[in-house]
């Protein structure tokens, strides 16, 4: 064990790095401030100088998870339609959450004052929507709803046991209408393709709203 003079200073960044590693190893249920403190070889109260509580920790984890994937997002490309940008933004958000076990559950309900990267994603989405012609109120509501949709759907995706799909589970529950629908879908469709299709349904609604308002 390192002496006090040799020990690396405790910082929020160190706390987040260790917490992400523990999250990936054992999931959200086993992620505790006490366990993080043990990994850092400090007393648990020392963490409270850097993270006020478990919710604050999850917010900083959300920021770390989302930030890496959004570097190339920014504004629309020259030849990119606003709905194409939304598809790209949603995919990048989902991808960042999927890189970590229970990533979407961590991000659910995040405080945007701490989850700065998620706040930036939301702000960029509002800007793209207002530039497309939505009024500010509708743009904020739509951007927030899309963010919640992506996080919630990704949380469900990550919660399926052993990577199973709804198709694998249908025999154990009474889902007659769902079973009929699944029988018509392409069994080779990837999880990415299903996610894009689901987001596409949401975006189609936005395109309809904008078209009818003009």
From TrEMBL:
Coiled coil: none annotated. InterPro entries: DNA-bd_HTH_TetR-type_CS, Homeodomain-like_sf, HTH-type_TetR-like_transc_reg, HTH_TetR, Repressor_TetR_C, Tet_transcr_reg_TetR, Tet_transcr_reg_TetR-rel_C_sf. Pfam families: TetR_C_1, TetR_N. Keywords: DNA-binding, Repressor, Transcription, Transcription regulation. The keyword Repressor applies. Signal peptide: none annotated. Residues 9-69 form the HTH tetR-type domain. It comes from the Bacteria. Residues 32-51 bind DNA. Transmembrane segments: none annotated. This is TetR/AcrR family transcriptional regulator. It comes from Fodinicola feengrottensis.
